[in-house]
Design a protein that fits this description.
By secondary structure, the protein is an alpha/beta fold. Helix 6 links the parallel strand 6 and strand 7. It is built from 16 helices and ten strands. Strands 2-1-3-10-4 form a five-stranded mixed sheet, with helices on both faces. Helices cover 48% and strands 16% of the residues.
Length: 332
């Protein structure tokens, strides 16, 4: 009896030791608050890093929150409600132009093309951009990258967005899809998976990709205040390493395999739809596998902003971009 009692006590002690060790490891992880501008399949590699435990492997406890809008995302970052933000690079230029002693620095690129698609209410077999003339176009929020890229592409095809069509830009980002579904607009600019869901339901039909039309641009990047990067360089490096691992996994995996992993982040979408969307983004090279924000991309970004009349001032590449950490990780 005493022998079994000793064995039982030993097993309890081992269990408690293992539990304490696990708790200790969790407590040792560095907490990182990450704010994403919206929930989008466009950010698939980020969800892969979370779902596959790549952040945890680096000793990080990443808390993801969706802030729904570039202005709200930057407010969270500047007020220290978030350590790192995933948002359009143009927001760092807006903040810099307002004057700051602690600028927001772009340190890793997640996507390198626009992620929106042109959706027509009617099915079009042979779409031509001229068909938009005289139509009602439900665009994105003024001053954001989707809107600026949208106008850039329209002008590229000889369409004046403010003269040749009725441009609607006063609807909140979160309500654009619902407005189109309710009957507003002949065409709409949408992110995935909404565009594919609409096509599946017969609500609308994808006729063109703004990403393919606009070329490479640092569309969404990870950024942090200069002071945070300086004081937490090792943490940022671990963060980038986890993301880079996720990017590589996405690059070599099928759309279906990727979709199965990220599906919990998109409970309203089925795996089949997600797989279609992910393959579409992969085929047009949207995911920035190398994660390096290039000088050429930075110039393209500012050209698009200037074309849209939204560039407050030209900002040198080296002022708001830091590629040292990404390059270090990729060269390991």
């Amino acid at each position: 009896m005493k022998r079994w009692l000793k064995i039982g006590m030993l097993m309890v002690a081992v269990f408690l030791l293992m539990f304490a060790s696990a708790c200790s490891q969790k407590e040792e992880r560095t907490k990182v608050s990450l704010a994403e501008v919206t929930r989008s399949v466009f950010y698939t590699p980020q969800y892969i890093a979370l779902a596959n435990g790549y952040f945890e492997d680096e000793g990080l406890d990443v808390e993801l929150k969706t802030t729904w809008g570039g202005d709200k995302t930057m407010t969270a970052l500047l007020s220290d409600a978030a350590d790192i933000a995933l948002v359009g690079s143009e927001t760092s230029i807006y903040v810099y132009a307002q004057g700051t002693n602690d600028p927001v620095i772009n340190f890793a690129q997640l996507t390198q093309t626009d992620g929106t698609f042109l959706v027509s209410r009617e099915k079009v077999d042979d779409f031509e951009w001229d068909q938009l003339k005289g139509s009602t176009f439900l665009g994105q929020r003024k001053g954001g990258m989707p809107q600026m890229v949208g106008e850039f592409v329209l002008k590229k095809h000889g369409i004046d967005p403010h003269q040749d069509l009725e441009l609607i830009q006063n609807i909140d980002f979160a309500n654009i899809a619902n407005s189109f579904a309710s009957g507003t607009g002949d065409y709409v600019q949408l992110f995935e998976p909404t565009a594919s869901v609409f096509e599946k339901e017969g609500t609308g039909y994808i006729v063109a990709s703004f990403g393919e039309e606009s070329g490479h641009v640092p569309y969404t990047t990870f950024m942090a205040k200069e002071s945070y990067i300086k004081d937490n360089e090792e943490t940022v490096e671990k963060f980038v390493r986890a993301l880079y691992k996720a990017q590589q996994w996405v690059e070599k995996s099928s759309g279906e395999d990727i979709a199965k992993v990220v599906q919990p982040y998109f409970e309203d979408s089925d795996v089949e739809t997600l797989a279609t969307v992910i393959e579409r983004y992969k085929n047009q090279g949207s995911f920035a596998e190398k994660m390096t924000l290039t000088e050429e991309g930075w110039e393209n970004l500012q050209n698009i902003m200037e074309e849209a009349g939204e560039l407050p001032e030209k900002v040198d590449y080296d002022t708001l971009v830091n590629t040292d950490i990404v390059e270090k990780v990729m060269n390991e």
